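A quick aside before the break. I want you to see a complete sequence-to-structure record at least once, exactly as it would be stored in a machine-readable document. Don't worry about memorizing anything.
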Amino acid sequence: MPSNLHVVLRSSALPLAILVTALVYLRGWLHLRSASVNAIPAWRATSFFLGLLLIWTAIGSPIAAFDEELLTIHMIQHLLLMTFAPPLIWLGAPLMPLLHGLPRRLVQGAVGPIFRWAPVQWLGRLLGRPSFCWLAAAGALVGWHIPAAFTLALNSDVWHAVEHICFLATGLLFWWPVVQPWPSPTNQPRWTILLYLCLGTFPCDILSAFLVFCERVVYTAYLSAPRHFGMSALEDQACAGALMWTCITIVYLVPAALLTIRMIGPQPAIAPPGLGSTVPQTEPQEMEVSCG
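That is the input. The structure line, written in tokens, reads:
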């Protein structure tokens, strides 16, 4: 049974946080649309809201109650948080709508000065490096699937929450160089993103292959868990590994194919920066207000 902390998070705190984020984004998006119809297309806003929905599905929906009984459900959570929700969030070009959605005094008095603070700018440059993003995502994936760490998260509400936050944060980091939302720098060649995606599949392939072909149950906590769908613990483990293997391959293939088409196709006069980058079409003075 889920603990009281999990009940509170799933029933109130998490949906409230997602709802507030959605409302702030919607307010900012409507403000930008009133200034310029083409500022951020409706499909980008839809992508952002879908990303938020997937985060709630992973952590706050009824399926989350089975993550301690089925490794496959646990793997679905990880995939939603690291692989599916982050690119949808970034495709929504969230930074400008969120800035415009917040109260102006808050942006001018707090957010703007924080963004201009030298240590924050240095941290932003560090977090934007593809090498750092790759290492962070690979480290989180491998680290939390070490049996000791995995079991710790299963047995501790706090560490379970930390695990989910870690997966979401590193998922956002991993997809940042791929989608390149504003204000991401766009000076790296496109072929490096193809290499980045290819290398990104290696930790997932190794882990999923190990889960599929291992002849023993790696996470022993599932040996005593209730069985569902007629699957044994070992079959559940193989299903989780196969699901991870398939989803990662397909999801990473999509941006790789789009980037390849752009590379071999006719080049426009001004090449679009990155897979999904967007430069909000706002007036310069309006952007200055947002940044304080």
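Two observations worth writing down. The mean pLDDT is 83. The chain has one domain: 4-290. We'll return to this after the break.
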